[in-house]
Specification:
This protein is of the alpha/beta class. The chain is built from 11 helices and 12 strands. It folds into 2 domains: about 110 residues, 3-Layer(aba) Sandwich (Rossmann fold), CATH 3.40.50; about 180 residues, NAD(P)-binding Rossmann-like Domain (Rossmann fold). The protein has a 7-stranded parallel beta sheet with strand order 8-7-6-9-10-11-12, sandwiched between helices. Strands 2-1-3-4-5 form a 5-stranded parallel beta sheet, sandwiched between helices. The protein starts with 10 loop residues before the first strand and ends in an 11-residue tail after the last helix. Helices cover about 30% and strands about 15% of the residues.
Length: about 325
């Protein structure tokens, strides 16, 4: 990037299906040229002359070969499993995410899902649409419950997972953290166990919360073996990637009543296929990958880009939130 003495020579492209990122960038009154596209087709048409790309949701690794001037890719979120890191390294293209930007809102969303499942808010909403006044429940085991004193097992204790743990403790839950590096402690967990102990931890869970990244180790890590060891009154909460869960095994667990329900913010395909059985379960809450939804993207992400451009121009390769 330091080959550009003049900021006006730097071209930035924002590529997102919804967020008005270029509008947020222009509000910072920077000198760089910037534009926004909203579709993959337009991204493909415009990527060849771009120096900086901010992208989410409409990326394909075939674009790397077309991006002849690209120096730096900025993500709006945390996950980067869609990117060919080796190919980016070969092209000396830097990749940064926005870790921490949405940790609060994802944790709040997680607690909303936990409370909704516990208090049957999703069922109440369904009944409201039917104008049905549900009676009190006779069987104590089938009633709405409190989460106070319940056990939350959190798989993945990065910024998001640790914030979820903090919020769970605020509700007086017992928190078990599951992570690879046990040397890095968390003040918000009652117990820390290694990822190799996930099955045993799942046995204790009233709420098994997935907040890990998706990689070779975590792909379909929540599978039949986990469901076979969960309590039949427990819930699965996934605010990570759909690929962390073996969806067929989850459907079987729901069919066999091995778990009490699930809340899923990310699934195998997006949008979720209309024929997917998960649509049909009363005890499943589906949110359309909105756990990280916040009004802060248009302000925070452009600020990250401005800072990283400054560093690149100064030959400083230590970028904010750098992945590669």
């Amino acid at each position: 990037m330091n080959k550009y003495i003049n900021d006006k020579d730097i071209s930035i492209l924002f590529a997102h299906g919804s967020y008005q990122l270029d509008k947020g960038f222009k509000a910072l009154n920077q000198l760089q040229k910037s534009n926004q596209v909203y579709t993959y087709e337009d991204l493909r048409k415009n990527i060849s002359n771009v120096d900086v790309l901010c992208v989410s949701g409409i990326w394909n690794n075939d674009l790397i070969d077309l991006a002849t001037n690209l120096n730096y890719i900025q993500l709006t979120g945390v996950g980067y499993d869609a990117f060919d890191l080796n190919k980016l390294k070969d092209r000396n293209i830097k990749l940064c995410n926005a870790v921490g930007l949405n940790k609060i809102v994802v944790a709040e969303h997680t607690m909303s899902l936990i409370l909704s499942l516990s208090r049957f808010l999703h069922i109440a909403r369904d009944n409201q649409s039917k104008k049905f006044w549900a009676p009190f429940i006779s069987d104590p085991k089938e009633r709405q419950a409190e989460i106070n004193g319940k056990t939350a097992v959190i798989f993945g204790l990065g910024d998001i997972g640790n914030t979820i743990a903090k919020f769970c403790k605020s509700f007086d839950m017992y928190v078990i953290g599951v992570k690879r590096n046990l040397d890095v402690k968390s003040e918000y967990t009652d117990s820390l166990v290694h990822t190799s102990e996930l099955v045993n931890a799942a046995k204790e869970a009233d709420y098994l919360i997935i907040s890990s990244s998706l990689n070779n180790e975590t792909e379909k890590v929540i599978n039949k073996n986990i469901f076979d060891n969960m309590k039949d009154e427990s819930y699965l909460i996934n605010v990570a990637r759909g690929g962390c869960v073996n969806e067929e095994d989850l459907i079987q667990a729901l069919e066999n009543k091995q778990i009490k329900g699930a809340a899923l913010d990310h699934l195998s395909t997006e949008p979720l296929d209309i024929n997917n059985p998960l649509w049909n379960y009363e005890n499943v809450i589906i949110t359309p990958h909105t756990a990280g939804e916040t009004p802060n993207y248009e302000t925070v992400v452009p600020e990250i880009i401005v800072e990283n451009i400054k560093r690149l121009k100064n030959n400083d390769d230590n970028l904010l939130h750098q992945v590669i």
